[in-house]
Hints:
Blueprint: H1 3-32, E1 37-42, H2 54-63, H3 78-86, E2 91-98, E3 103-110, E4 113-119, E5 122-127, E6 132-134, E7 145-147, H4 160-167, H5 170-175, E8 176-181, E9 188-192, E10 198-202, H6 207-225, E11 230-234, E12 241-245, H7 267-272, E13 277-280
Parallel strand pairs: 1-3, 4-7, 7-8, 10-11
Antiparallel strand pairs: 2-3, 4-5, 5-6, 8-9, 9-10, 11-12, 12-13
Amino acid sequence: MTKSSVIRCLLSVVLAVYLGMALLIANDMAARARCTGMNVVVEQTPSSRNFVTPAEVNRLLAEWKLNGTDCAASAIDLNKIENRLNGIDNIEQANVERLADNSIRIRVTPMIPVARVFDSHGSYYINRAGKRLTANSRFRIDVPVISGEFNAERSPKMLLPLIQRISNDSAWNALVAQIMVDRRNGDIILAPMIRGHVINLGDTANIDSKLDRIMTMYRKVLPVKGWNYYDTLSVKWGGQVVASRRTKSIPEPLIRFDREGDETDDESVDNMLVADTVAIPPKQIKR
């Protein structure tokens, strides 16, 4: 072996040792490097805005004692943070990663609620698949309100087509304040913003025809009879509107709302639906 070959071999060994030592030192420095902060990014949409916020995610991290920025970035358990956030039913997906500057980026995609449900067991949201989402004072969003008694056979999910139909119609979206399910017979009742009467849809079959008949009543009958003349407008039966004359004074507003978890009583709804009926002939509601 020539002298130059020996020198090249020695230089290669020295270079390999140097690179190995540099890598060890760099890894040690990286392991000791402090976390420079946690950056929470919530992928907001108009439908989910303020349902899950960065402030709420940071509050959860503090509650779980997973927000430590006073320790080495390498010591932060990214998988644990990700799994805890993905366990929250209001969050559809969470991704956690450590960046080159030793900061932690937490990217959260919230569930999109489409309605708020009130029943005897409490209050919760549902998304477009009917999944139940937590409702509390920290998660708030303006969505249609549903009330009633629900179980495996009678689920709020059955109202999703109606909610979508109302949400896609600007007039009905502005008009409907609450959707109720009568605990006695399962009839679907709409409480409009116009105080004094309710709308009995029966079920969600032929919903376009039913809503059109009610709108015709609003345009042609109630302006003549008076907006407080009837307490119930029923379109349960095809091709007609059956209206119940008012026999009692107008009750308090039926709209449910959340006051630190309290709910209004819907007994007045049951009282309103018990009345003599007067049929409006179909010819009065034809366009």
